[in-house]
Amino acid sequence: MTDSRVVDFVLSQTGLALFSLLLTVFCYFGAKRLYKYHRVWWLAPIVLAPIVITLLVFNLKIPLPTYFEYTHWLMAMLAPATITFALPIYRERNLIRQYPLTIGLGVTAGLFLGMLSSWLLVKFVPLPVELSKSLLVRSVSTPFAMEATSAFGGVPELTAMMVLITGVIGMLVCEPLFKFMRIRTSLGKGVALGASAHGAGAAKATEIGQQEGVIASLTMIFIGIAMVLGAPVFALIFI
């Protein structure tokens, strides 16, 4: 391919779409590698990668439909990825048998307090209708939230954004809150992070300790499953 053809391809819609996909993957793995060596919150992939990608897309003037032409497959992979959640449930079944009441209460409290806090926010803060409905499932992991939000009349893309923001905030404030509330046990920290900050919380819990990470993952999974199964009923209650 000659130099002129290379330039024409890069500037074409297909070329920009492919560039956007490669850019997204590169930013994620680049941020992940940086965070491996420098454990500061602003280098976490969930924080750094979206910021860098957003800045590059807008500065390079890549149209959003072009950006999503190929990158939407990354989002589509979230749905089949939920199947893999069965693995930690099976692998850690002894831990579930050991702490059924604590995990069960954590799942129940996390599910309803998450929706209740979102409902109160929507009630007292004027927000666009689409945003308010998309906000109600922000406290469960992205694949489950995007599946459940349709029952509330929410927009999956907005829901994913709310989930991301919730996870980042939970990841940032968890340790000061643990100290303030004097939460010292692995079980308490794991359940709290999994219930309130889903995937980001589970990642943070894994940094704190192995057992914290396992418990956070289990709590996150059970809350997500409960949200998807109960979404039609919850929609009747909170809308």
TrEMBL record:
Membrane in keyword set: yes
Keyword presence, tRNA-binding: no
InterPro entries xref list: CidB/LrgB
Species assigned in the record: Shewanella septentrionalis
PANTHER family to which the protein is assigned, alphabetical: INNER MEMBRANE PROTEIN (PTHR30249:SF16), PUTATIVE SEROTONIN TRANSPORTER (PTHR30249)
Taxonomic lineage: Bacteria, Pseudomonadati, Pseudomonadota, Gammaproteobacteria, Alteromonadales
Superkingdom: Bacteria
Pfam families assigned to the protein according to its UniProt record, in alphabetical order: LrgB (PF04172)
Keywords tagged on the record: Membrane, Transmembrane, Transmembrane helix
Topology of this chain in the membrane: Multi-pass membrane protein
Primary subcellular site in the record, as a coarse category: membrane
Protein name, UniProt field: LrgB family protein
Compartments where located: Membrane
Any single Gene Ontology cellular-component annotation: membrane
Transmembrane segments: 6-28, 40-58, 70-90, 102-122, 158-178, 214-238
